[in-house]
UniProtKB/TrEMBL annotation:
PANTHER family linked to this entry: APOPTOSIS-INDUCING FACTOR 1, FERROPTOSIS SUPPRESSOR PROTEIN 1
Organism per entry: Apiospora marii
Pfam families: Pyr_redox_2
Name of the featured protein: FAD/NAD(P)-binding domain-containing protein
Superkingdom, taxonomy of origin: Eukaryota
Cross-referenced SUPFAM superfamilies: FAD/NAD(P)-binding domain
Family under the similarity heading: Belongs to the FAD-dependent oxidoreductase family.
FAD/NAD(P)-binding domain ranges (all copies): 4-300
Keywords (A to Z) from UniProt: FAD, Flavoprotein, Oxidoreductase
Presence of keyword Signal: no
Signal peptide start-end: none
InterPro entries xref list: FAD/NAD-bd_sf, FAD/NAD-binding_dom
Length: 380
């Protein structure tokens, strides 16, 4: 009897896992990949693709049908839709299909790689269907093109990269005023080394990006055609910034509503054990942002994928697996415009030139197509 493995999500986690299952497992394993987007989105380059004229969409969006066309229909199926209800006790999941109908799929194993959505439907991640993602990219490009002043809310990885792109293309030449808001005295999370955070701030300032520190965004309103960004400083004082455009680069919503409440933590992420499985269900695997074992960051995803595909052979044979070693080491490569970069590997801050070569030049788009086709995997 064939074993149906349902992979929920066709992003940086779901795509390589689906390829591996369709290629490396025995003929009795059938893969069903489920996602509302029929194009794979290389969202690592999202901060650059939203800049008008900086990068074409063909560099970041790839047809899933084409990428998986080498597999036979009895080995692989793509289902365009979104998981609506996971019933792990019955080994079944209900999919709300893009055409408005529903479909129940029985599974032997399910891999949850549904990730998260960005605040305000920003195209830092997939925005629903591929058509909606393309529309979101187009809309933001148009808004950026028309704006003379832009405020980027949030100084995490995405915020710094977006501000870096805007600074390189506009602020450096004085074409537009770019401001970034940080909740702390420095950009990036406090778990990142101070030297890396300081470098990120200096590089932004070299691009003439204005850095507002120790401020949290308490509201965004409109007044006379401008955006009014209301800030609350750490000393409780209130500040208002006016700009033509406000770009949120903070806050995410985990795509896990389909799972039973007892499988989710208070943030909405799914509980994981040291086998990357749901603690209660040994045939429910979770990888990437949807799981709560590690920080929600793309850099840790490759380790999870490599572990999982190596263990699948033993899992399908007798269910025995080695435990996953969740490495606490921080891995960060941060692009600050096309010409500069910084980052961290453990307690080492690599040379900017190295990180520029590895990431900032192309934002990974030089290998994104091969990744979509299963020729290459995501590398830390």
């Amino acid at each position: 009897m064939s074993k149906t493995v349902v992979v929920l999500g066709a992003g940086l986690g779901g795509i390589p896992v689906a390829h591996w299952l369709a290629t490396k497992t025995d003929k009795d394993v059938r893969v069903v990949l489920v996602a509302p987007n029929d194009e794979f989105f290389w969202n690592i380059a999202s901060p650059r693709v939203v800049i008008p004229g900086a990068m074409g969409e063909e560099k970041v969006l790839y047809s899933i049908a084409d990428a998986f066309s080498k597999y036979s229909k009895d080995k692989f199926e793509f289902v365009a839709g979104k998981a609506e209800s996971l019933r792990p006790d019955a080994n079944s999941v209900t999919i709300a299909l893009n055409d408005g109908t529903k479909r129940d799929i029985a599974y032997h194993t399910v891999v949850v790689a549904t990730g998260a959505d960005a605040k305000g439907d920003m195209p830092w991640k997939v925005v629903g269907t591929s058509q909606q993602t393309r529309a979101a990219i187009s809309q933001l490009r148009d808004q950026i093109d028309k704006a003379s002043s832009i405020v980027v809310g949030g100084a995490g990885i995405t915020g710094v990269e977006v501000a870096g792109e805007l600074g390189y293309h506009y602020a450096k030449s004085g074409a537009k005023t770019i401001t970034i808001i940080a909740a702390d005295s420095l950009p990036l999370e406090s778990r990142i080394m101070k030297s890396t955070r300081e470098t990120a701030k200096k590089e932004l300032e070299k691009l003439h990006v204005k850095f507002v520190s120790n401020a949290r965004i308490s509201g965004v309103t409109e007044s006379e055609g401008s955006k009014v960004v209301e800030l609350t400083k750490t000393d409780s004082t209130k500040v208002e910034l006016k700009a033509d455009l406000f770009i949120p680069a903070y806050g995410i919503k985990y795509n896990t509503e389909f799972a039973p409440p007892e499988m989710r933590d208070d943030d909405g992420r799914l509980h994981q054990d040291t086998f990357l499985r749901s603690p209660k269900y040994s045939n429910v695997f979770v990888i990437g942002d949807a799981g709560n074992l590690q920080a929600a960051q793309a850099a840790i995803l490759n380790a999870q994928i490599e572990y999982l595909v190596k263990q699948f052979g033993a899992y399908f044979k007798d269910g025995k697996m080695e435990e996953y070693n969740a490495d606490p080491k921080i891995l960060l490569a941060l692009s600050i415009g096309p010409s500069r970069a910084t980052g961290q590997v453990g307690t080492w801050k690599p040379f900017s030139l190295l990180l520029w070569w590895l990431k900032a030049r192309y934002m990974g788009t030089d290998s994104a197509g091969d990744f979509a086709r299963g020729v290459k995997i995501l590398k830390s």
